[in-house]
């Protein structure tokens, strides 16, 4: 079945859902059931081809997630399981799934295992793809389900990312569709420090946005702790922009000017014979310069750390096993 859009013709695609999992034993069976039902419905409606699949990526779970995934895959060939050798992080797990799926799928959609991202938005994703988009971003309608702290910090973070020149999509959290062409292009990027939310928009392919409502988790609790969110935020800033380094240079220049002004004022006071104790001024200046210096060294250290990791050329993930059509293969 083929759909024609102007001069472009596009076949109904084979869709792979890539679902990263880390300690999701409470919800994974429910997730598998909901996703299977959705794919079967899409196939009946001729929106995807037969052969579309659901690929779970186990990111080194420490609970029974992997055992449950193996049981699910053994019962139904629509499921496959990619198990990483350790816990490489959410971004690496997503990339591992996409790179494994790209040889078999026309389009890949990444979606979290907790079912908070509305799976019914897949229809709109596929419509955008059929209309010619190579990348489709899922964007939450609002953040009403977040607490005051998370809502405020998320807003500040996206504003900062845009200020620093990043093309990250506001309120987009790795729920997206990529075509085979986009996946092949993504495979060309070799950096160790992954920040897919900022990286994918730089590829420049035709893209669009689908808005969806965030649902409550079916079970369990979020595995994205505050420390993980802060790490992702720092990776996003330092992986996608050198503007903080330029800001340090600008700040250093301003401090230099301030120091020159203070020197002139001090010399004038000395020449006029004023007896100024200067304790407060000395303390404020010392603290100001010391704080700026430490902050600057910390930012520079983050970039040096990134350079250090990139030069090692370590693999971004290592696949331990792949369960495919009920057979397990050692990588």
The total tally of domains equals 2
The number of E-state strands comes to: 11
Separate helix tally: 10
The CATH C-level name of the largest domain is: Alpha Beta
Portion of residues in beta strands equals 15-25%
Could you give the distance between the termini? 36 Å
Q: The CATH topology of the largest domain, please?
A: Spore Coat Polysaccharide Biosynthesis Protein SpsA, Chain A
Describe this structure in words.
This protein has ten helices and eleven strands. The protein is an alpha/beta fold and 331 residues long. The protein folds into two domains: 2-150 and 169-222 and 315-330, Alpha-Beta Complex (Spore Coat Polysaccharide Biosynthesis Protein SpsA, Chain A), CATH 3.90.550; 243-312. Helix 9 (243-271) packs antiparallel against helix 10 (279-312). The protein is elongated. It starts with a strand and ends with a strand.
């Amino acid at each position: 079945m083929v759909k024609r859009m102007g001069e472009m013709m596009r076949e109904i695609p084979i869709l792979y859902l890539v679902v990263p999992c880390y300690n999701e034993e409470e919800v994974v069976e429910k997730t598998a059931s909901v996703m299977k039902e959705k794919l079967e419905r899409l196939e009946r409606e001729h929106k995807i081809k037969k052969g579309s699949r659901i690929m779970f990526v186990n990111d080194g779970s420490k609970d029974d997630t992997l055992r449950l995934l193996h049981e699910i895959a053994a019962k139904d060939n629509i499921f496959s399981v990619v198990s990483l050798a350790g816990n490489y992080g959410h971004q690496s797990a997503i990339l591992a799934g996409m790179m494994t799926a790209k040889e078999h799928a026309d389009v890949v959609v990444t979606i979290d295992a907790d079912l908070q991202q509305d799976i019914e938005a897949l229809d709109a994703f596929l419509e955008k793809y059929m209309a010619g988009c190579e990348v489709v971003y899922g964007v939450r309608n609002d953040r009403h389900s977040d607490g005051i702290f998370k809502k405020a910090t998320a807003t500040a973070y996206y504003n900062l990312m845009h200020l620093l020149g990043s093309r990250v999509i506001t309120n987009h959290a790795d729920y997206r569709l990529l075509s085979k062409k986009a996946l092949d292009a993504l495979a060309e990027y070799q950096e160790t420090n992954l920040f897919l939310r900022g990286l994918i928009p730089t590829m420049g392919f035709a893209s669009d946005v689908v808005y969806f409502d965030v649902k409550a988790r079916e079970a369990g609790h979020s595995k994205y702790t505050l420390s993980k969110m802060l790490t992702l935020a720092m990776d996003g800033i330092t992986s996608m922009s050198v503007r903080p380094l330029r800001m340090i240079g600008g700040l250093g220049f301003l401090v230099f000017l301030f120091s020159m002004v203070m020197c002139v004022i001090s010399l004038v006071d000395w020449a006029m014979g004023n007896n100024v104790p200067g304790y407060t001024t000395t303390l404020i200046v010392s603290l100001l310069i010391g704080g700026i210096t430490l902050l600057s060294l910390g930012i520079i250290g983050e970039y040096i750390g990134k350079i250090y990791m990139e030069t090692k050329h370590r693999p971004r993930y290592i696949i331990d096993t792949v369960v495919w059509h009920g057979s397990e293969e050692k990588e």
